[in-house]
Design brief:
Two copies of one chain form a homodimer. The first copy, chain A, has a single domain, classed as L-arginine/glycine Amidinotransferase, Chain A, CATH 3.75.10.10. With 384 residues, chain A is of the alpha/beta class. In chain A, the strands form five sheets. Chain A has a four-stranded mixed sheet with strand order 1-7-6-5, with helices on one face. Chain A contains 13 helices and 17 strands. Chain A is 29% helix and 21% strand. The longest helix of chain A has 16 residues.
């Protein structure tokens, strides 16, 4: 396989672009959780939930689960007999392949390549969440080799896949809170955090590496402490021009301001095709989730990982769903609004594609939320 | 993927059999050498030679090189830009995938499955070569998952792929010296080494797992100390009914007796189809190779690996070639007989298939020989 450095070419220059998540997929990649300082009870409850999520996706798309050598035989046993799930050895620091994995781009002739972003564990030595992250930095490279595709490598641009959503027709949505923060590209490119120069720099990289022409900036995400506000907890494309956005009418809800501001920004936005975005509101869980002392007590403390502390708000957004072929895998928390969220998302897909073309399925994910993410964070699609 | 235990079924029962090496291949698997107690100068010269061999094979067949995490980035850099070579992470104890890897079997309908033999580092606690070998024991499992195929797993049968050669039409050739030795299946199945009962037991397993009906037993191989006499240093099929065998006219040559006996056994043998084997003699290197003090001095000493000692004969047989699609990769040592061996092998393929259908290519492999094996030992084909 070939490494294409920034000095050689970029996806945009070669006519490649990232397809929308609603476009056909060849497979979905996952990692296997293992950090005992991230996951409670030695990561065993999280592994069970990752497995259930993998099985739910495998109803729609083949799944590759990448596992550290020490957990390999155990994971093979968990998935033994599953026709649509492969278990492959891969060393990782943590288990968020949306953020550490390759972003796949596609040429109109059908050829697929990988983009291997730089990764620094969500902020490196500024406000990163764990150290070291060198194995996670290699995941996109290993995926490119496994997928047997050439690999674009930008010089220094730091990006996690959870901080972008594209429509496959020239537009990407992202957040200031993440891309312009001190711990991302600002920490390596020499431009001031939150500056116009940094914004222009990021727009240039996003255009070059995602093959887009227009960047829509939402100001804030809902988890300043963890991912620095990834867009994939806030909004998601259903189809080009059609966006879902989190919403609450309750002014006391932890993310009331962020929901409102994101909705307003997106409703006012015009995409690369000159379309005004059609924005649909999706509910939040009725009862916000918070970290408990009990959960913290079953997570190891390690000075190289951000400690979990009780009463921190957990980021339980229904927006962190995965679209995979004709399936939409929606997080569920045992909350009063679980069913409503699935219904709202189903209706949005029905409205965009016709009734029943896509199928929204609720999948429990509260263990993944305890670890700091959700269904979209732990999956990465490879286009067909 | 599915694990098919011996109590569930076997390849023979399901209509699967191992194809001949001369049949079409989808890809060739290799590992990446790394043990500093096996390979001189930190395995760097061996890695260079493995890379050259991989490139030679890639002229005929796609190659997958499986690499420990600690060597991963280095190996990717070595193969960067090679269209036909993938570099995949896989933990291994040593680098002999012929022996540790899966043996692939095929159904007449085209479906391929893997056989995952038991492996004990060439004799376990009796006369094995290194400890531990648990990562090598998992390689066939990982290959099955990567190849996305179901996997047969015998209960306790110990076998290395280098100890068998099949014709794809019902016959396997193997050696007493390896399969009936104290350190292989005898050490776990409760039958006496060298006994008729053990021979019958092995025949039964070979028939079940390779889909053959006839086992031809050659008494001795040429390396009693290392692999306990693998057949792949002694003989090889060119086509069904047509076998090559090592030969020397020099009574002082280290393997004079073994060459003669193997030739006589094979010449007298009748295969599963009732054919008398047509046996062609292939030369040995003019000058036998021996381990040198200088080479030993650059290999680490480790109490868990068999030490390398000066003046040990090295197993430099031309027979340890790989057939891969229309290529035949023949070991070369800088010996006076190098060219003769390539010519003899080319002539044998020309005689069997017509002139120039297969192409014999000499490839240097003396570094691999220092480590204890050769081109066939470090490769494993997956049928198309």
């Amino acid at each position: 396989m070939k490494t294409i450095a920034e000095s050689m070419s970029t996806p945009a220059a070669d006519g490649y672009a990232m397809p929308g998540e609603f476009e056909p997929q060849e497979r979905v990649w996952m990692l296997w959780p293992h950090r005992t300082d991230t996951w409670s009870f030695g990561a065993k409850p999280a592994q069970k939930q990752y497995a259930a999520i993998a099985r739910a996706i495998a109803e729609f798309t083949p799944v590759v689960v990448c596992v550290n050598e020490s957990d390999y035989r155990g994971a093979v046993a968990v998935f033994d007999g599953e026709e649509n799930i492969q278990v492959i050895e891969m060393t990782s620091d943590d288990a968020w392949i949306r953020d550490t994995g390759a972003t796949f781009v596609k040429h109109p002739d059908g050829d697929v390549r990988a983009v291997h972003w730089h990764f620094n564990a969500y902020g490196g030595f500024v406000d990163g969440l764990y150290f070291p992250w060198d194995k996670d930095e290699e995941i996109a490279l290993k995926m490119a080799e496994l997928a047997n595709v050439d690999r674009y490598r930008p010089d220094e641009f730091i990006l996690e896949g959870g901080s972008i959503h594209v429509d496959g027709e020239g537009t990407v949505i992202t957040t200031d809170m993440c891309l312009l923060s001190e711990g991302r590209s600002a920490s390596v490119c020499g431009l001031a955090p939150w500056s116009d120069e940094l914004r222009a720099y990021c727009e240039d990289k996003l255009k070059s590496y995602l093959g887009v022409e227009k960047v829509i900036w939402v100001k804030d995400g809902i988890d300043p402490e963890e991912t620095n506000g990834h867009i994939d907890d806030v909004a998601q494309y259903v189809a080009p021009g059609k966006v879902l956005c989190i919403w609450t009418d309750d002014p006391d809800y932890p993310f009331y301001r962020e929901c409102r501001e994101a909705y307003e920004t997106l409703s006012a936005a015009v995409d690369a095709k000159g379309r005004k975005l059609e924005v649909t509101k999706i509910c939040m869980p009725k009862k916000p989730l918070f970290m408990t002392q009990e959960a913290c007590d079953t997570i190891d403390v390690d000075e190289n990982a951000e400690p979990r502390v009780p009463d921190e708000p957990l980021i339980a957004s229904y927006m962190n769903f995965l679209i995979s072929n004709k399936g939409v895998l929606v997080p569920q928390y045992g909350d009063e609004n679980d069913e409503l969220a699935v219904r709202q998302i189903q209706e949005a897909f029905d409205a965009a594609y016709g009734e029943g073309v896509y199928r929204a399925v609720g999948v429990k994910s509260e263990q993944v939320v305890f670890g700091g993410g959700n269904i979209h964070c732990i999956t990465q699609q490879q286009p067909a």
